[in-house]
């Protein structure tokens, strides 16, 4: 602000619309400081004349609208209040009794201890009932289908009754080659 103008002649200042009343009210205050200082600190003494006073802690809304006070007279009789307190106490005692029940005496005994560690129990290994010894690695597994292979329909003729489900190429072998065989496989 190199050049000071008369406050009434400031037209190009960028005043907000309908804000000219405020501009005229603070025009004498603008002459003492620079524009930057005014924007940072504002105009002192416009809202209050006592600059050292503190702000009030109560707003206008809180001062105007106080919460309504409760009724001055009793809304419930003494007997009703005592009855309500007594019922609440009884309900509290019932809930406390349910929560604080004594747990029954626990018998920590496993199934093994209960069933197999009984006094007088003698473990015995049963004797084998089969006469011949089987090798589980080489013997054919006994299943429903291996026991009933004669009743199954649509299966190639079995060459070895002890191993009915082994590979067999008889279904794709031409008849002319099969006629050269000495023994024909039995048909089911």
Give a description of the structure:
This protein is mainly α. The chain is built from 7 helices and no strands. The radius of gyration is 55 Å and the shape is elongated.
* Total number of helices: 7
Whole-number mean pLDDT:
78
Helix and strand succession?
HHHHHHH
Radius of gyration: 55 Å
* Classification by helices and strands: mainly alpha
The number of E-state strands comes to 0
Helix content: 25-40%
Termini Cα gap = 121 Å
The proportion of residues in beta strands is under 5%
The best one-word shape is: elongated
Notable traits:
single chain, 188 residues, mainly alpha, 7 helices
Task: Please provide a brief summary of the model.
This protein has 188 residues and is mainly α. The chain is built from 7 helices and no strands.
Strand and helix layout:
Blueprint lengths: L19 H7 L8 H7 L18 H5 L13 H22 L11 H6 L27 H4 L27 H4 L10
């Amino acid at each position: 602000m190199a050049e000071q103008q008369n406050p009434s002649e400031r037209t190009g200042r960028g005043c907000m619309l309908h804000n000219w009343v405020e501009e005229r009210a603070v025009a004498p205050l603008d002459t003492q400081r620079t524009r930057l200082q005014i924007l940072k600190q504002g105009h002192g003494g416009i809202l209050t004349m006592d600059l050292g006073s503190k702000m009030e802690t109560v707003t206008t809304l809180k001062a105007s609208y106080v919460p309504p006070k409760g009724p001055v007279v009793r809304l419930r009789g003494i007997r009703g209040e005592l009855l309500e307190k007594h019922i609440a106490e009884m309900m509290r005692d019932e809930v406390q009794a349910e929560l604080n029940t004594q747990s029954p005496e626990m018998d920590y005994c496993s199934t093994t201890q209960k069933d197999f560690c009984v006094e007088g129990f003698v473990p015995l290994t049963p004797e084998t009932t089969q006469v011949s010894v089987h090798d589980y690695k080489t013997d054919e597994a006994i299943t429903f289908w291996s026991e009933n292979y004669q009743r199954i329909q649509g299966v190639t003729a079995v060459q070895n009754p002890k191993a009915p489900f082994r590979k067999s190429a008889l279904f794709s072998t031409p008849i002319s080659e099969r006629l050269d065989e000495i023994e024909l496989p039995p048909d089911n």
